[in-house]
Design a protein that fits this description.
This protein has 380 residues and is α/β, with parallel strands linked by helices. Helices cover 31% and strands 22% of the residues. It folds into two domains: 5-177 and 296-376, Aminopeptidase (3-Layer(aba) Sandwich); 180-294, Alpha-Beta Plaits, CATH 3.30.70. Strands 1-2-6-3-7-15 form a six-stranded mixed beta sheet, sandwiched between helices. The longest helix has 21 residues, at 202-222. It is globular. The model has no long low-confidence stretch (mean pLDDT 97).
Length: 380
Amino acid sequence: MKLDVVKLTQDLIAYPSVSLSSNVDVTRFLIGILARLGFEVEELPYTDVNGVAKLSIVAKLGKGKGGLSLLSHNDVVPAFAEQGWTSDPFKGRLHQGKLYGRGSCDMKGPLAATLCAATRFKAADLKAPLFIVVTSDEEIAARGAWEVARKSKLFSEASTGYGLICEPTRLRVVHAHKGALYLEIRSKGKAAHTSTLKGINANIAMIPFLQEMRTIYDLVLRSRKYRNAEFSPAHSEWSIGINDHNIATNVTPVQSVCTISYRPMPGAEVDELIERTRQSAKKHGLRFAVKFDGKPVYTPKDAPLVRTALQLSGTRASSTVPYGTDGLAFASRMKNLVVLGPGDIAQAHTVDEWVETEQLHRAVDLYSRFIDHVCVQGRP
């Protein structure tokens, strides 16, 4: 089966698989391709909190465990013509060596490159298996990746091998990225007209808690304990949000909601911060919840996977990035991960998102070399 990476990317862009909508149709399209290539395909469906059907897949070519996994997602962030797009966001447009369209860079182009690379191999060629993973909802808390990490039989088989997270890095090797922590703290009041003095202002209970959060805010920005010089910036912010969602200024606020987000780096003792926040909320009579806790991705720079990735990509040194990927979930099972994909992350989520077609073709060749090295030759 022969596939052209640019045409396939255009086909994928044509599916408007925005995270809040269903990705089932585009995933069924991918299943059809993988089946024709001889892959065994495992489906992991679920219904999201809005009742929308979602589908992630893990596909396997060859026998055994370990091998190489090419990891992508097929959901995209919203795109509307009124945002200023110069053409239909869901029709891949070619112009002067660039392919424009929502998801061209993040990350239907990289996903297409993994499939095109796979077409060059048959199961009989492989000493170690090749896995292709495609998730839903990467853009909203990596729900699909968590489904894969927790429930997939095939991903369990893949987890002892190498994983390439194919997000855009301009085909440079990234050996680490930050994690993600989201906390929610709520206070409850009683609504009343402010002139009556009969209400209970939910914000008042939140104020002493926020003072204690300011202490943690200062701590994580100043303490060496929460610093990692491999990253730029070397610290992460204890980002505090507050909203009472009040309907009018003359109504006593009935609720106050504090949100905290933090991007922990490898080595940071996040559990201490979570517990400290939990105890502060308890002391002030507030409700506390951990909404998301994704660990950082970190593969040592001298690890065999990193050395192999540098060799095959012709890159001199690996680097880190401050953003996150589905690796937040995959790292709970798979310990050898790098981020390596075509395109520039600066294009992700932008109006008139684009990827250079030359990057897509280079990615097909690079992923093919990886498959040959790990799966055909059986080399580390």
